[in-house]
Design a protein that fits this description.
Elements (H helix, E strand, L loop, with lengths): L1 E5 L4 E2 L6 E2 L6 E2 L3 E7 L13 H8 L6 E4 L2 E4 L2 E8 L5 E7 L13 H12 L17 H5 L8 E5 L2 E6 L6 H5 L10 H19 L26 E7 L2 E6 L13 E7 L2 H9 L5 E3 L8 E13 L8 H9 L3 H8 L4 E5 L16 H5 L10 H14 L4 H5 L4 E6 L4 H16 L3 E6 L1 H10 L4 E6 L6 H5 L16 H12 L3 H18 L2 E13 L3 E2 L2 E2 L5 E2 L4 E2 L3
Parallel strand pairs: 5-14, 5-15, 18-19, 18-20
Antiparallel strand pairs: 1-8, 2-7, 3-23, 4-25, 6-7, 8-9, 9-11, 10-11, 12-13, 13-14, 15-21, 16-20, 16-21, 17-21, 22-25, 23-24
Length: about 550
């Protein structure tokens, strides 16, 4: 059965979590909006952009098939789409691209650009942290296993992009087709760099004595090679920030607010707030608890991952280690400027919504007991759990210590040392701790060469499935190598369910199963806040750390 949706002037009535600081469009800003971002981006490559800073800058440079607006989801690079319910239960979407969309060098955007970008996203060689966002596309499992061409997408012609998904997916248009990571990139730019990078890796692997190769320049961090297809293009790029200017050929230029967007990199929240107070910037990302700051709806979750394939810690030991953690104390200890921290009540943080738009956490309740008055009782219960499992104090004393790996940034060292102490003092379990650079941490996680790791878990969309799916056995982001056939079945069933109520129930069961295993120990949630000057309005966020400035205007008096 074929259905057609025309998008040229139609705003889609799709479920999407979208917050905005007002929606008045009385007077365009028509000048420059300056935004302070804490920390500079390491990449503006859509497939690899990970931090709020990286995704926010990229979101204002590129545009997807669909786009976020003040009223919901509307046409982006696609002028229309058709979808067909296939006899085998799959669905096929056929997007017809606009005829007036261009790259910043003047070349037309084609369906081939989307094919290349999506195949590149799931290619293991790209090492994207967001590959799982395409898990509903037919052929995904084979694609992430090393055959990106298996992904069921194609360009029927220059303007027709065809996608087959394995079953109904309620958020395919509203989330997948608006996400930063699925935005198009040019093969003649990114492809050249990727090929050279792979060649470097291959050459290095052939020589055990070879020195670490110098990393290739990131094409996305050079104004001369960065090609974008959105409403703005880079006009200047320095170590202090990046400036964006409106694109002349952008099809919807009349609806844009600022002529220019200046992103200024601040060393910390204090510096950013000083710039705001002095009037040098209009927006602060990571505003902490400053007066007037708005709390983002989603968060990263700090966790301890226990590598299923590299540690002999029993289920009793893993669960006992979770029970003795004072998560509220850790959240207070984390206390990094610009962020708000709360003890984790589960893996899914507050702000993540169900299929009906309700808070997943509030609907399903806490699955971790953080009652401060019951802390001593939980510690005693943990000791008894180990005793019933046959562990004596002498056995624990002479066990070979396992190592907790942490990234030596921010408060991570304090958190790791606190965990080390509480596991020793409350349970007699010895854990050593080792700090590594962010680069080494990422490499070690990807290679699965750790026993315990202190690391953040986040989703790439505002759904519980986004968080939980990364622990499916076939996911690149399943760094702890967690494997449970029953868990995989729950996640697949949830992803393919046509019933919103059933999907949410499956996900709730999956979260409980994952945490009961003890291989994932949530600690606390990191929530980000932002601040926009009250003379402006129209900032947008998708709730996942992406901020859009295209529609910022002067607030009505």
């Amino acid at each position: 059965m074929k259905r057609t949706k025309r998008l040229l002037s139609l705003v889609l009535a799709l479920a999407v979590v979208l917050t905005m600081a007002g929606c008045s469009t009385e007077e365009p800003a028509s000048t420059t909006v300056r935004a302070a971002l804490v920390d500079a981006p390491n990449t503006l490559d859509p497939a690899r952009a990970f931090t709020e800073t990286e995704k926010t800058v990229a979101a204002n440079l590129y545009e997807n098939l669909m786009k976020q607006t003040l009223t919901g989801i509307s046409a982006g690079q696609a002028a229309s789409y058709e979808y067909t319910d296939n006899m085998d239960g799959t669905e096929t979407y056929s997007f017809t691209l606009r005829n007036d969309i261009y790259w910043s060098d003047g070349k037309k955007v084609t369906a081939h650009d989307f094919v290349y970008a999506w195949q590149r996203l799931v290619d293991p060689e790209t090492k994207s942290p967001h590959a799982s966002i395409l898990n509903m596309v037919a052929g995904y499992a084979d694609a992430v296993a090393g055959d990106p061409a298996a992904l069921q997408i194609r360009a029927a012609d220059d303007r027709t992009f065809v996608v087959t998904i394995s079953g109904h997916c309620s958020y395919f248009l509203s989330v997948v087709c608006t996400a930063v990571c699925t935005m198009p990139v040019r093969a003649d730019v990114a492809g050249t760099a990727d090929t050279a990078d792979a060649a470097d890796d291959s050459a290095d692997a052939q020589s055990a004595d070879a020195a670490e190769p110098e990393p290739l320049p990131d094409w996305s961090m050079d104004a001369a090679t960065l090609l974008t297809n959105g409403p703005y293009a880079v006009s200047a790029m320095t170590d202090e920030g990046v400036s964006l200017a409106q694109v002349d050929k952008y099809y919807d230029a009349k609806r844009l607010g600022p002529d220019e967007i200046d992103f200024v990199y601040a060393a910390d929240t204090e510096t950013a707030m000083a710039l705001y107070d002095s009037g040098d910037v209009d927006f602060v990302l990571d505003a902490g608890e400053a007066e007037g700051a708005v709390e983002a709806s989603a968060a990263a979750v700090s966790t301890v991952l226990i590598n299923q394939m590299a540690t002999s810690l029993s289920e009793s030991m893993r669960n006992a280690m979770s029970m003795v953690i004072d998560r509220s104390a850790l959240a207070e200890l984390a206390g990094e400027s610009g962020k708000v921290y709360r003890a984790a009540d589960g893996l899914i943080p507050y702000g993540i919504v169900t299929s009906e738009g309700k808070s997943f956490r509030e609907v399903n309740g806490a699955v971790i007991d953080n009652d401060a008055e019951q802390y001593d009782a939980r510690c005693q219960a943990a000791v008894e759990l180990l005793s019933r499992a046959g562990y004596t104090s002498s056995m624990l004393e002479y066990m070979t210590p396992v190592t907790l790996l942490y990234e030596n940034t921010g408060s991570n060292a304090k958190i790791a040392q606190t965990l080390q102490s509480v596991w020793r003092d409350k349970l007699g379990i010895r854990v050593s701790v080792r700090g590594v650079s962010p680069e080494e941490m990422l490499t070690t996680l990807r290679n699965g060469e750790f026993s315990l790791a202190l690391t953040n878990v986040s989703g790439d969309r505002n759904t519980a499935l986004s968080y939980l799916n990364r622990f499916s056995s076939n996911q690149q982001e399943n760094y702890g190598q967690f494997y449970s056939n029953a868990y995989d079945i729950l996640i697949r069933t949830a992803a393919n369910s046509s019933s919103d109520e059933a999907r949410d129930a499956y996900l709730a069961d999956a979260e409980k199963m994952l945490l009961d295993s003890g291989y994932v120990i949530p600690l606390y949630n990191e929530t980000y806040t932002w601040l926009l000057r009250d003379t402006l309005t129209g900032i947008q966020t998708d709730g996942m750390g992406v901020y859009y400035f295209q529609h910022v205007v002067k607030a009505a008096s």
